[in-house]
Sequence to fold (315 residues):
Amino acid sequence: MSSSEKILVIGSSGQIGTELTAQLQKIYNENSVVASDLKKSKNFSGAFEELDVLDEKRLGEIVSKHKISQVYLLAALLSATAEKNPQFAWKLNMNSLFNVLDLAKEKKINKIYWPSSIAVFGPSTPKENVPQFTVMDPTTVYGISKLAGERWCEYYFLKHGVDVRSLRYPGLISYTSPPGGGTTDYAVDIFYQAIEKENYQCFLKEDTVLPMMYMPDALRATIELMETDAKNVKVRSSYNIAAMSFSPKEIAEEIKKHISKFKIEYKPDFRQSIANSWPKSIDDSFANRDWNWKNKVTLSEMVKDMLAHLTLSKK
Ligand code: NAD
Ligand code: AKB
Fold:
């Protein structure tokens, strides 16, 4: 990124936003990054603007005030929360994207990052090693909004030359900020409960395998995609990326290696049917071919690191 570029992160107080903003500040220096969200998170330091991304006028004002050239749009309702308010989820997830895509169409910004999700896949998608291009029939409002968003990203690229880049994140696991209402959230909650109570009641069945990724890999993938030359970005909808796949039983067994008394019980709720509609594993060979993506962190390394950080932060 050249020194004249300036980044706006929208949704900076969320699970990804908290860490991505810190990482961008570290790489490009604090003055090159402006954070924004409905509310500032507690320990945030740096430039911050309160923003409802649905307020197009305020978004435009922030972009011109800070001479923003790149936007990372992270504001959204995730799968479980979106099912509780489908119409609002559609409005937020779609209109936020249009507001940002239109800024680029009008040449007010020159690059966009917008995340998609494995939620774009559905019951007719192959379960194992899902190819980049495949059947997509999402059954959640979240998945439908992400699939529609992917189509609009490609459309704006093809029709208006907008440089928009995207990844289909798997479930993300991290310790800095809690997850915001997804189906894969159990894989974060389990660590807090394991440390606090040596016990966890899981809302998915023991054998529900889903694709997951540790946050450092997700941040690296995001920044590598945004840094690569535009000519390398051959997929303008969204790239499959992958790291690990496991079930609640498998992650519980891994945690037990460190907390021997840890026990897990299963009480599936409405999130089970969402999980059942998603694939178990993802083929990310296009991301590898186009911009050399390669995951690093394994399940056992992730579990060890999560427990170490969360145990330390409790002391
Ligand atoms: P999150 O819910 O933790 O954070 C979203 C942030 O957006 C919150 O801080 C929220 O306050 C903010 N926000 C909500 N409405 C807003 C509005 N109107 N204006 C401005 N800000 C608003 O979500 P996350 O996990 O950080 O996810 C970020 C993005 O990544 C989303 O698009 C999500 O779909 C995608 N994603 C996340 C995961 C994951 O496992 N975390 C996986 C796949 C895709
Ligand atoms: C969710 O569970 O909704 C997210 C996702 C995989 O998009 N973590």
